[in-house]
Amino acid sequence: MADTSVTTDQGRSEPDTRKDTNLRRELVREELLDNAALMFDEHGFDRVSMAMIARQVGLGRSAIYHYFASKDDILATLVEAEAMAPVGRIREIAGDDSRSTADRLMQVVRDGVVRRLSSGSRFVRLARLEAQIPDHMRKDYDKSRRAIYDEHVTLIEKGIARGEFRPTNSHVAAFGIIGMANWTSRWFRADGSLSAQEVADIIADLALASLRVPESTDERLGQLQARLNEVAGELSSLADSIGPAPTAKG
User: Fold this and answer.
1) Residue 1's pLDDT band (cuts 50, 70, 90)
2) Average pLDDT over the chain, rounded to whole?
3) Which CATH homologous superfamily contains domain 71-221?
4) Which CATH code, of 1.10.10.60, 1.10.10.10, 1.20.200.10, 3.40.50.300, is assigned to 16-68?
């Protein structure tokens, strides 16, 4: 087990509580963000005070300022986590030229759905708060949303150009895929029969199925014939290994 002790100025070895302190701090921050998102949604951003948020989570009026400098700081953190941070991840996946375009788009959709469902109700609440986002944050928020849309369009157009996707309107397709992914946060239940990852896999599969080039009847028949030939070869090899059939005695 790793040594988590620290040495004091007096040379004594004592347990290192910094990790526990950081963990507790992060948990409190997350609770503050969840409750603030709920209160902003229910009461309106302008009507919620820092004291109200602190009271909701059982903190003293001044204690909340150890976590966030202001109400704007809380909202900026929500915007960063739910709208701006995902852009970097999408660009990382989209820029991986070692993978097919279809694989990259599937990963983008999967990651997006898991992120939305992992953030619980925050994503939905932030979407409803769009009109209340202050002007000095709104520009970056809109820019990040546009970047996510543009990356989807670019991947779809690359897939069409490479023959991986059928010709279609890339802008409508991008809106459709993003909308399908966004909607999962409104009906998903963490205690339901499907996990966030399983839902993400299904949505990604449906998204790619809507874009893939359909196989022709001749191609499907050719694949079936090839498989039948493989099976026939395997049966023939099995028969040879058994040996000749016994002859009937007269």
Assistant:
1) very low
2) 82
3) Tetracycline Repressor, domain 2 (1.10.357.10)
4) 1.10.10.60
**Which residue carries 């059982």 as its tokens?**
58
Task: Please tell me the predicted confidence (pLDDT) of residue 79.
Answer: 84
For 49-63, what is each residue's pLDDT tens digit?
999 999 999 988 889
pLDDT tens column, 229-249: 777 776 676 666 666 655 555
123-131: Cβ within 8 A, 24+ apart: 123/82, 123/182, 123/185, 124/185, 124/186, 125/37, 125/38, 125/40, 125/41, 126/37, 126/78, 126/79, 126/82, 126/83, 127/182, 128/41, 129/37, 129/40, 129/41, 129/45, 129/75
